[in-house]
Protein backbone atom coordinates (compact mmCIF):
# COMPACT_ATOMS: atom_id res chain seq x y z
CA UNK A 1 0.00 0.00 0.00
CA UNK A 2 1.36 3.40 -0.99
CA UNK A 3 2.36 5.62 1.92
CA UNK A 4 0.32 8.79 2.24
CA UNK A 5 1.96 12.11 1.41
CA UNK A 6 2.88 14.05 4.55
CA UNK A 7 1.59 17.63 4.53
CA UNK A 8 0.97 20.61 6.77
CA UNK A 9 -2.19 22.72 6.68
CA UNK A 10 -2.66 26.47 7.06
CA UNK A 11 -6.19 26.69 8.45
CA UNK A 12 -7.61 30.13 7.65
CA UNK A 13 -10.16 31.62 10.04
CA UNK A 14 -10.29 35.39 10.63
CA UNK A 15 -6.91 35.95 8.96
CA UNK A 16 -7.95 35.97 5.29
CA UNK A 17 -4.84 37.54 3.80
CA UNK A 18 -1.48 36.76 2.25
CA UNK A 19 0.34 39.90 3.48
CA UNK A 20 1.51 39.69 7.10
CA UNK A 21 -0.06 36.24 7.53
CA UNK A 22 1.79 34.61 10.45
CA UNK A 23 0.55 31.04 9.86
CA UNK A 24 1.49 31.20 6.17
CA UNK A 25 4.89 32.57 7.09
CA UNK A 26 5.55 29.80 9.62
CA UNK A 27 4.36 27.04 7.27
CA UNK A 28 6.66 28.44 4.57
CA UNK A 29 9.67 27.89 6.86
CA UNK A 30 8.97 24.15 7.08
CA UNK A 31 10.30 21.49 4.67
CA UNK A 32 6.95 19.79 4.11
CA UNK A 33 4.51 20.92 1.41
CA UNK A 34 1.41 22.63 2.77
CA UNK A 35 -2.10 23.48 1.65
CA UNK A 36 -4.27 26.43 2.65
CA UNK A 37 -7.75 25.55 3.89
CA UNK A 38 -10.95 27.46 4.61
CA UNK A 39 -14.07 25.70 5.90
CA UNK A 40 -17.57 27.13 5.79
CA UNK A 41 -18.84 25.51 8.97
CA UNK A 42 -22.26 24.00 8.28
CA UNK A 43 -23.23 24.11 11.97
CA UNK A 44 -22.34 27.81 12.25
CA UNK A 45 -24.69 28.80 9.40
CA UNK A 46 -27.60 27.03 11.11
CA UNK A 47 -27.03 28.36 14.63
CA UNK A 48 -29.26 30.93 16.29
CA UNK A 49 -29.12 32.85 19.56
CA UNK A 50 -32.06 34.84 20.92
CA UNK A 51 -33.72 34.10 17.57
CA UNK A 52 -30.93 35.71 15.49
CA UNK A 53 -28.51 33.99 13.13
CA UNK A 54 -24.80 34.00 13.93
CA UNK A 55 -24.17 35.60 10.54
CA UNK A 56 -26.46 37.56 8.22
CA UNK A 57 -26.46 38.14 4.47
CA UNK A 58 -24.22 41.23 4.54
CA UNK A 59 -21.28 39.59 6.30
CA UNK A 60 -21.81 36.33 4.40
CA UNK A 61 -21.48 38.13 1.06
CA UNK A 62 -18.42 40.07 2.27
CA UNK A 63 -16.88 36.80 3.47
CA UNK A 64 -17.46 35.05 0.13
CA UNK A 65 -15.80 37.96 -1.69
CA UNK A 66 -12.89 37.77 0.75
CA UNK A 67 -12.42 34.04 0.16
CA UNK A 68 -12.52 34.48 -3.64
CA UNK A 69 -9.85 37.17 -3.41
CA UNK A 70 -7.77 35.03 -1.05
CA UNK A 71 -7.90 32.16 -3.55
CA UNK A 72 -6.57 34.46 -6.28
CA UNK A 73 -3.75 35.82 -4.08
CA UNK A 74 -2.72 32.36 -2.88
CA UNK A 75 -2.57 31.12 -6.49
CA UNK A 76 -0.18 34.00 -7.26
CA UNK A 77 2.08 32.59 -4.53
CA UNK A 78 1.77 29.00 -5.84
CA UNK A 79 -0.11 27.94 -2.69
CA UNK A 80 -2.99 25.47 -3.23
CA UNK A 81 -6.25 26.49 -1.57
CA UNK A 82 -9.03 24.14 -0.55
CA UNK A 83 -12.48 25.52 0.34
CA UNK A 84 -15.05 23.17 1.83
CA UNK A 85 -18.57 23.35 3.24
CA UNK A 86 -19.61 20.97 6.00
CA UNK A 87 -18.77 19.89 9.53
CA UNK A 88 -15.24 20.95 10.39
CA UNK A 89 -14.24 17.78 12.25
CA UNK A 90 -15.43 15.54 9.40
CA UNK A 91 -13.64 17.60 6.74
CA UNK A 92 -10.31 17.30 8.58
CA UNK A 93 -10.86 13.54 8.90
CA UNK A 94 -11.46 13.26 5.14
CA UNK A 95 -8.35 15.27 4.29
CA UNK A 96 -6.37 12.98 6.58
CA UNK A 97 -7.63 9.96 4.60
CA UNK A 98 -5.86 11.36 1.50
CA UNK A 99 -2.81 12.85 3.22
CA UNK A 100 -0.93 12.40 6.46
CA UNK A 101 -1.47 15.74 8.24
CA UNK A 102 1.53 16.61 10.44
CA UNK A 103 0.87 20.16 11.62
CA UNK A 104 -2.01 22.62 11.49
CA UNK A 105 -1.01 26.29 11.49
CA UNK A 106 -3.79 28.63 12.62
CA UNK A 107 -4.57 31.70 14.70
CA UNK A 108 -4.90 31.39 18.46
CA UNK A 109 -8.53 31.55 19.64
CA UNK A 110 -9.73 32.50 23.10
CA UNK A 111 -13.53 32.50 22.97
CA UNK A 112 -15.50 29.33 23.70
CA UNK A 113 -17.14 28.41 20.39
CA UNK A 114 -13.83 28.65 18.51
CA UNK A 115 -11.97 26.69 21.21
CA UNK A 116 -14.62 23.94 21.08
CA UNK A 117 -14.22 23.62 17.30
CA UNK A 118 -10.44 23.19 17.69
CA UNK A 119 -10.93 20.58 20.40
CA UNK A 120 -13.21 18.68 18.01
CA UNK A 121 -10.45 18.60 15.37
CA UNK A 122 -7.86 17.50 17.97
CA UNK A 123 -10.13 14.66 19.07
CA UNK A 124 -10.13 13.07 15.58
CA UNK A 125 -6.49 13.95 14.77
CA UNK A 126 -4.72 13.34 18.10
CA UNK A 127 -1.32 12.92 16.41
CA UNK A 128 -1.43 16.34 14.72
CA UNK A 129 0.47 19.25 16.25
CA UNK A 130 -1.19 22.68 16.32
CA UNK A 131 1.03 25.72 15.69
CA UNK A 132 -1.00 28.72 16.85
CA UNK A 133 -0.27 32.44 16.60
CA UNK A 134 -1.91 35.55 18.00
CA UNK A 135 -2.53 37.23 14.66
CA UNK A 136 -5.48 39.49 15.50
CA UNK A 137 -3.61 42.00 17.68
CA UNK A 138 -1.60 45.11 17.01
CA UNK A 139 0.54 44.51 20.10
CA UNK A 140 2.09 41.15 20.92
CA UNK A 141 0.45 39.65 24.04
CA UNK A 142 3.94 38.94 25.47
CA UNK A 143 4.80 42.64 25.10
CA UNK A 144 1.59 43.67 26.89
CA UNK A 145 1.78 41.15 29.74
CA UNK A 146 5.42 42.05 30.41
CA UNK A 147 4.10 45.51 31.33
CA UNK A 148 0.80 44.54 32.92
CA UNK A 149 0.00 41.72 35.33
CA UNK A 150 -3.61 42.07 34.30
CA UNK A 151 -5.57 44.25 31.89
CA UNK A 152 -6.71 47.39 33.77
CA UNK A 153 -10.33 48.39 34.21
CA UNK A 154 -9.82 51.64 32.29
CA UNK A 155 -8.67 51.91 28.69
CA UNK A 156 -6.71 55.09 29.50
CA UNK A 157 -4.61 53.18 32.07
CA UNK A 158 -3.98 50.43 29.51
CA UNK A 159 -2.98 52.93 26.84
CA UNK A 160 -0.66 54.88 29.12
CA UNK A 161 1.12 51.70 30.19
CA UNK A 162 1.58 50.15 26.73
CA UNK A 163 2.44 53.39 24.93
CA UNK A 164 5.67 53.63 26.94
CA UNK A 165 8.44 52.04 24.84
CA UNK A 166 5.80 51.24 22.24
CA UNK A 167 6.81 48.25 20.10
CA UNK A 168 5.00 46.88 17.06
CA UNK A 169 6.58 44.14 14.95
CA UNK A 170 7.18 44.69 11.23
CA UNK A 171 4.71 43.09 8.77
CA UNK A 172 5.77 39.66 7.49
CA UNK A 173 6.42 39.07 3.80
CA UNK A 174 5.37 35.75 2.26
CA UNK A 175 7.56 34.51 -0.59
CA UNK A 176 6.22 32.80 -3.70
CA UNK A 177 6.54 28.99 -3.58
CA UNK A 178 8.85 27.41 -6.16
CA UNK A 179 6.63 24.41 -6.87
CA UNK A 180 2.85 24.15 -6.92
CA UNK A 181 1.53 21.22 -4.87
CA UNK A 182 -1.35 19.55 -6.76
CA UNK A 183 -4.42 18.94 -4.60
CA UNK A 184 -6.12 15.54 -4.87
CA UNK A 185 -9.30 16.86 -3.24
CA UNK A 186 -11.68 19.23 -5.08
CA UNK A 187 -13.02 22.41 -3.50
CA UNK A 188 -16.76 22.82 -2.98
CA UNK A 189 -18.73 25.39 -4.96
CA UNK A 190 -20.04 27.84 -2.40
CA UNK A 191 -22.34 30.80 -2.97
CA UNK A 192 -24.85 32.80 -0.92
CA UNK A 193 -27.61 30.30 -1.63
CA UNK A 194 -25.46 27.44 -0.30
CA UNK A 195 -25.03 29.44 2.91
CA UNK A 196 -28.78 30.01 3.18
CA UNK A 197 -29.19 33.50 1.71
CA UNK A 198 -30.65 35.09 -1.40
CA UNK A 199 -28.58 37.33 -3.64
CA UNK A 200 -28.95 41.08 -3.12
CA UNK A 201 -27.53 44.39 -4.34
CA UNK A 202 -25.64 46.86 -2.14
CA UNK A 203 -27.92 49.73 -1.07
CA UNK A 204 -27.18 52.94 -3.04
CA UNK A 205 -26.87 55.00 0.18
CA UNK A 206 -24.59 52.57 2.00
CA UNK A 207 -21.72 54.20 3.89
CA UNK A 208 -19.84 50.93 3.30
CA UNK A 209 -20.21 50.16 -0.44
CA UNK A 210 -17.00 48.10 -0.52
CA UNK A 211 -16.14 44.54 -1.50
CA UNK A 212 -14.56 41.92 0.70
CA UNK A 213 -10.98 40.78 0.34
CA UNK A 214 -7.37 41.74 0.84
CA UNK A 215 -7.07 43.67 -2.44
CA UNK A 216 -10.12 45.82 -1.65
CA UNK A 217 -8.69 46.53 1.83
CA UNK A 218 -5.41 47.77 0.37
CA UNK A 219 -7.24 49.80 -2.29
CA UNK A 220 -9.18 51.54 0.46
CA UNK A 221 -6.00 52.16 2.45
CA UNK A 222 -4.24 53.61 -0.59
CA UNK A 223 -7.27 55.84 -1.31
CA UNK A 224 -7.58 57.02 2.31
CA UNK A 225 -3.85 57.60 2.84
CA UNK A 226 -2.25 58.47 -0.51
CA UNK A 227 -4.91 59.56 -3.01
CA UNK A 228 -7.01 61.81 -0.79
CA UNK A 229 -4.87 62.09 2.38
CA UNK A 230 -8.13 61.88 4.33
CA UNK A 231 -6.10 60.40 7.18
CA UNK A 232 -4.89 63.95 7.97
CA UNK A 233 -8.43 64.82 9.09
CA UNK A 234 -9.47 61.46 10.58
CA UNK A 235 -10.05 62.72 14.13
CA UNK A 236 -12.47 65.40 12.92
CA UNK A 237 -14.43 63.20 10.50
CA UNK A 238 -14.60 59.88 12.38
CA UNK A 239 -17.95 60.82 13.96
CA UNK A 240 -19.59 61.34 10.56
CA UNK A 241 -22.83 59.65 9.54
CA UNK A 242 -23.27 59.94 5.77
CA UNK A 243 -21.10 58.76 2.88
CA UNK A 244 -18.07 56.53 2.50
CA UNK A 245 -15.38 59.11 3.29
CA UNK A 246 -16.05 59.71 6.98
CA UNK A 247 -13.80 57.44 9.05
CA UNK A 248 -11.29 54.96 7.65
CA UNK A 249 -13.85 52.13 7.18
CA UNK A 250 -11.13 49.52 7.81
CA UNK A 251 -13.25 47.66 10.39
CA UNK A 252 -14.79 44.96 8.16
CA UNK A 253 -11.46 43.97 6.61
CA UNK A 254 -9.85 43.97 10.05
CA UNK A 255 -12.68 41.82 11.42
CA UNK A 256 -12.14 38.95 8.97
CA UNK A 257 -8.40 39.54 8.77
CA UNK A 258 -8.19 40.69 5.14
CA UNK A 259 -5.70 43.24 6.48
CA UNK A 260 -3.78 43.17 9.75
CA UNK A 261 -3.64 45.90 12.39
CA UNK A 262 0.16 45.61 12.12
CA UNK A 263 0.06 46.45 8.39
CA UNK A 264 -2.20 49.47 9.00
CA UNK A 265 0.11 50.72 11.76
CA UNK A 266 3.10 50.31 9.45
CA UNK A 267 1.36 52.31 6.71
CA UNK A 268 0.42 55.08 9.18
CA UNK A 269 4.09 55.38 10.12
CA UNK A 270 5.08 55.59 6.43
CA UNK A 271 2.39 58.26 5.90
CA UNK A 272 3.76 60.28 8.85
CA UNK A 273 7.26 60.15 7.39
CA UNK A 274 6.00 61.32 4.00
CA UNK A 275 3.31 63.88 4.94
CA UNK A 276 3.95 64.59 8.62
CA UNK A 277 2.37 63.35 11.85
CA UNK A 278 -0.59 65.08 13.49
CA UNK A 279 -3.38 64.37 15.97
CA UNK A 280 -5.36 62.47 13.32
CA UNK A 281 -2.57 60.07 12.37
CA UNK A 282 -2.12 59.32 16.07
CA UNK A 283 -5.88 58.89 16.51
CA UNK A 284 -6.07 56.05 14.02
CA UNK A 285 -3.44 54.21 16.08
CA UNK A 286 -5.44 55.16 19.21
CA UNK A 287 -8.48 53.40 17.69
CA UNK A 288 -6.37 50.32 16.87
CA UNK A 289 -5.38 50.28 20.55
CA UNK A 290 -9.06 50.38 21.57
CA UNK A 291 -9.62 47.37 19.32
CA UNK A 292 -6.66 45.60 20.96
CA UNK A 293 -7.96 46.53 24.41
CA UNK A 294 -11.27 44.71 23.83
CA UNK A 295 -9.33 41.68 22.57
CA UNK A 296 -7.11 41.69 25.68
CA UNK A 297 -10.21 42.01 27.88
CA UNK A 298 -11.63 38.90 26.14
CA UNK A 299 -8.30 37.10 26.45
CA UNK A 300 -8.25 37.82 30.20
CA UNK A 301 -11.93 37.28 31.05
CA UNK A 302 -12.81 34.64 28.43
CA UNK A 303 -16.49 33.60 28.60
CA UNK A 304 -17.42 36.22 31.20
CA UNK A 305 -17.89 38.70 28.33
CA UNK A 306 -21.00 36.71 27.32
CA UNK A 307 -22.51 36.42 30.83
CA UNK A 308 -25.67 38.28 31.79
CA UNK A 309 -23.82 40.42 34.37
CA UNK A 310 -20.66 40.60 32.28
CA UNK A 311 -17.52 41.53 34.18
CA UNK A 312 -19.54 42.82 37.17
CA UNK A 313 -21.08 39.62 38.63
CA UNK A 314 -22.37 41.41 41.76
CA UNK A 315 -24.22 44.03 39.74
CA UNK A 316 -27.46 42.14 39.21
CA UNK A 317 -29.14 43.67 36.18
CA UNK A 318 -32.90 43.46 35.78
CA UNK A 319 -34.25 43.47 32.24
CA UNK A 320 -37.72 43.89 30.84
CA UNK A 321 -38.98 41.12 28.59
CA UNK A 322 -40.82 43.13 25.96
CA UNK A 323 -40.89 41.69 22.41
CA UNK A 324 -42.84 44.74 21.19
CA UNK A 325 -40.10 47.17 22.30
CA UNK A 326 -37.47 44.93 20.75
CA UNK A 327 -39.31 44.90 17.43
CA UNK A 328 -39.71 48.69 17.51
CA UNK A 329 -35.95 49.07 18.07
CA UNK A 330 -35.08 46.64 15.25
CA UNK A 331 -37.48 48.15 12.73
CA UNK A 332 -36.71 51.81 13.55
CA UNK A 333 -40.04 52.69 15.20
CA UNK A 334 -38.94 53.96 18.62
CA UNK A 335 -39.58 57.43 20.05
CA UNK A 336 -36.13 58.58 18.88
CA UNK A 337 -35.71 59.62 15.24
CA UNK A 338 -31.93 59.38 15.56
CA UNK A 339 -32.10 55.80 16.83
CA UNK A 340 -34.62 54.93 14.12
CA UNK A 341 -32.48 56.30 11.28
CA UNK A 342 -29.46 54.32 12.51
CA UNK A 343 -31.44 51.10 12.88
CA UNK A 344 -32.93 51.43 9.39
CA UNK A 345 -29.45 52.04 8.00
CA UNK A 346 -28.25 48.84 9.69
CA UNK A 347 -31.23 46.86 8.37
CA UNK A 348 -30.69 48.09 4.79
CA UNK A 349 -26.88 48.08 4.58
CA UNK A 350 -25.33 45.98 7.36
CA UNK A 351 -23.36 49.02 8.50
CA UNK A 352 -23.71 51.77 11.09
CA UNK A 353 -21.34 54.52 12.20
CA UNK A 354 -19.55 54.27 15.53
CA UNK A 355 -21.59 57.25 16.75
CA UNK A 356 -24.78 55.43 15.76
CA UNK A 357 -23.78 52.21 17.50
CA UNK A 358 -23.08 53.98 20.79
CA UNK A 359 -26.47 55.69 20.67
CA UNK A 360 -28.66 52.75 19.67
CA UNK A 361 -26.97 50.43 22.19
CA UNK A 362 -27.32 53.00 24.98
CA UNK A 363 -31.01 53.50 24.05
CA UNK A 364 -31.56 49.73 24.06
CA UNK A 365 -30.01 49.27 27.51
CA UNK A 366 -30.97 52.47 29.34
CA UNK A 367 -34.22 53.68 27.73
CA UNK A 368 -35.84 50.39 26.72
CA UNK A 369 -34.19 48.44 29.58
CA UNK A 370 -33.90 45.30 27.46
CA UNK A 371 -31.37 42.47 27.84
CA UNK A 372 -28.10 43.75 26.35
CA UNK A 373 -27.22 40.24 25.13
CA UNK A 374 -30.19 40.36 22.72
CA UNK A 375 -28.94 43.64 21.23
CA UNK A 376 -25.43 42.17 20.92
CA UNK A 377 -26.84 39.08 19.19
CA UNK A 378 -28.77 41.24 16.70
CA UNK A 379 -25.60 43.19 15.90
CA UNK A 380 -23.78 39.88 15.47
CA UNK A 381 -26.21 38.84 12.75
CA UNK A 382 -26.45 42.20 10.99
CA UNK A 383 -23.04 43.89 11.07
CA UNK A 384 -20.80 43.48 8.05
CA UNK A 385 -17.82 44.27 10.31
CA UNK A 386 -18.83 42.15 13.31
CA UNK A 387 -15.91 41.34 15.59
CA UNK A 388 -16.74 39.26 18.65
CA UNK A 389 -14.43 41.10 21.05
CA UNK A 390 -15.30 44.66 19.98
CA UNK A 391 -19.02 43.90 19.76
CA UNK A 392 -19.38 42.33 23.19
CA UNK A 393 -16.85 44.71 24.75
CA UNK A 394 -18.81 47.74 23.58
CA UNK A 395 -22.19 46.31 24.61
CA UNK A 396 -20.85 45.50 28.09
CA UNK A 397 -19.42 49.01 28.30
CA UNK A 398 -22.77 50.62 27.44
CA UNK A 399 -24.77 48.27 29.66
CA UNK A 400 -22.54 49.38 32.58
CA UNK A 401 -21.16 45.89 33.29
CA UNK A 402 -17.92 45.98 31.36
CA UNK A 403 -14.41 46.49 32.68
CA UNK A 404 -15.37 50.12 33.37
CA UNK A 405 -18.62 49.86 35.34
CA UNK A 406 -19.53 53.56 35.40
CA UNK A 407 -23.14 54.07 34.42
CA UNK A 408 -23.31 56.06 31.20
CA UNK A 409 -26.13 56.80 28.82
CA UNK A 410 -26.46 58.89 25.69
CA UNK A 411 -29.06 61.60 25.28
CA UNK A 412 -30.05 60.75 21.71
CA UNK A 413 -31.75 64.12 21.14
CA UNK A 414 -28.59 66.02 22.10
CA UNK A 415 -26.47 63.64 20.06
CA UNK A 416 -28.69 64.15 17.02
CA UNK A 417 -28.40 67.92 17.38
CA UNK A 418 -24.63 67.72 17.73
CA UNK A 419 -23.88 65.24 14.94
CA UNK A 420 -26.87 65.63 12.60
CA UNK A 421 -27.91 69.26 13.08
CA UNK A 422 -28.96 69.63 9.42
CA UNK A 423 -30.97 66.36 9.61
CA UNK A 424 -29.16 65.09 6.53
CA UNK A 425 -28.65 61.64 8.04
CA UNK A 426 -32.17 61.31 9.50
CA UNK A 427 -33.79 62.50 6.28
CA UNK A 428 -31.71 60.06 4.23
CA UNK A 429 -33.06 57.02 6.05
CA UNK A 430 -36.42 58.11 7.46
CA UNK A 431 -37.84 59.69 4.29
CA UNK A 432 -36.98 56.66 2.17
CA UNK A 433 -38.43 54.18 4.63
Short description:
Helices cover 48% and strands 9% of the residues. With 433 residues, the protein is an alpha/beta fold. The relative contact order is 0.13.
Approximate strand percentage: 5-15%
**H/E element sequence:** EHEHEEHEHEHEHHHHHHHHHHHHHH
User: From the alpha-carbon coordinates, what is the Rg to the nearest angstrom?
Assistant: 22 Å
Number of strands: 7
Mean pLDDT: 95
**What best-fitting shape do the alpha-carbon axes yield?**
globular
Largest sheet: 5 strands, parallel
What is the count of DSSP helices, taking H or I runs of 4+ residues?
19
The portion of residues assigned to helices is: 40-55%
Description:
- The protein has 433 residues and is an alpha/beta fold.
- Helix 4 packs parallel to helix 5 (112-124), helix 12 crosses helix 17 and helix 16 packs antiparallel against helix 17 (388-399).
- The chain starts with a strand and ends with a helix.
- The mean pLDDT is 95.
- It contains 19 helices and seven strands.
